[in-house]
Predict the 3D structure of the following.
Amino acid sequence: MDYWGKLKSSDWAFPTVVLSLYGFFANCRIAEPFLTPYLIGPYKNISEEVVTNYLYPIWTYSYLAFLFPVFLLTDFLRHKPLIVVQGLFLVSNYVLLCFAPGLIAMVFLEIHFAVVTATEVAYFSYIYSVIPIKNYQRATGYLRSAMLFGYTFGAGLGQIFVSSAGLNYFYINAITLGVVSVAFLISFWLPRPQRSMFFKGRESAALGQQSQQEVPEKTGRPDETGVGDASSRKQKMERNDNAGCYNRKNVLSAGHLLWQSFRESYSSRHLIYWSGWWALATAGYTQILNYIQLMWDHIEPSATSSVYNGGVEAACSLVGAAAAFSVGYVKVNWSVWGELALGLFSAIGAGGVFLIVLPGNIWVCYAGYALFKSCYMLLITITTFQIAANLSMECYALTFGINTFVALSLQTIMTVIVVDGTTLALDIETQFIIYGIYHAVICVLFLIRGTYTACTKRRTQNPPDDKQINRGGNDVVIHNEPL
């Protein structure tokens, strides 16, 4: 009981623990690796062509439509309501999967899942609104680990249920419904942030600056320590925040702050290149992630073969996590070699995409997918660190939203041209060949750019040796160092 009281009184431990628990249960979606076999099998009886060319593109279009409004609502409503909505739509998602028959119900399923993915921005940015900046790194590590462990545990457990216990897909979806219901209940425990990043009342902002500048004198009595004043200031800030969010001046101020953050985020050519890779690579990664199960089912039909989707996803997550974790222990000057690393590992990832489709062997396909996913998780970790290290938290959140929006726009264009039944409606093998070519183009662009950057910076960082001249018999050393 005493431990629980200390946890709740902590300025960062309690929200971090609760959000980590939510992230674990929300991502422990046991049935997700088996979604395609469930839809095209006897449970839903939807054809592979309809799933590929009609049903899955609805998620992409809906995600694009929801992303920007959700980003603004996340800050305006202070994160928690959007996380609760995400939990609610996760529950409704599996209710539809379990109990709603027909294609129309599956259309609503894709729309519901688009809400779930769009509200991920609330999950990723919530913690930075409720904890001190000194705890950002630790809290971020815990949240990422909770998500990854939840996804790995869920995928692995799903594979055990399918291969060892022999459960059918309906019961696996029903179990997943129970797990995500726990996540929905946990979301109500989250404390609501008392501030937002962009929608701030003027008086509360001024009071916040004043409270940070004032240093109370520790004289022993409560009134003299400033506790009473700080408490009254906090209550006044909360009242002003609640009232300030709804006035016209504050909305205009939020728009101005958004524009300033946008200019700061993309004022550096270095950050533009890193953001460009983020958007380009994420578009291709999400597209492959969305259709990989269809590729697996095409090579080894689930109706006649054993399905190892869950085991593959669990293994890929662990390998990708190990690759991403290793970034923290690699001593590299990323400002010199970072863009070249983007090009080199993008080349490996492109090779993985071609391995998925060209040999026509399911185990080679699994290996290619693991290679591709590991390279992406490694590079997105480097990219995120490079961008976050050079921006304030407000700018990073905005950059995350804009890069994701650009990536989703590119993915939508790919879907419209390559996948959608009203345009080319290419078969799944041809689609993946195009995705491989797309990633090959990314690797060529960044190999060229990375080579140029590395050569240029190495030349500027290694000036000529110190020159020694003689002035009237006295040796004078001239150091070639920047002022």
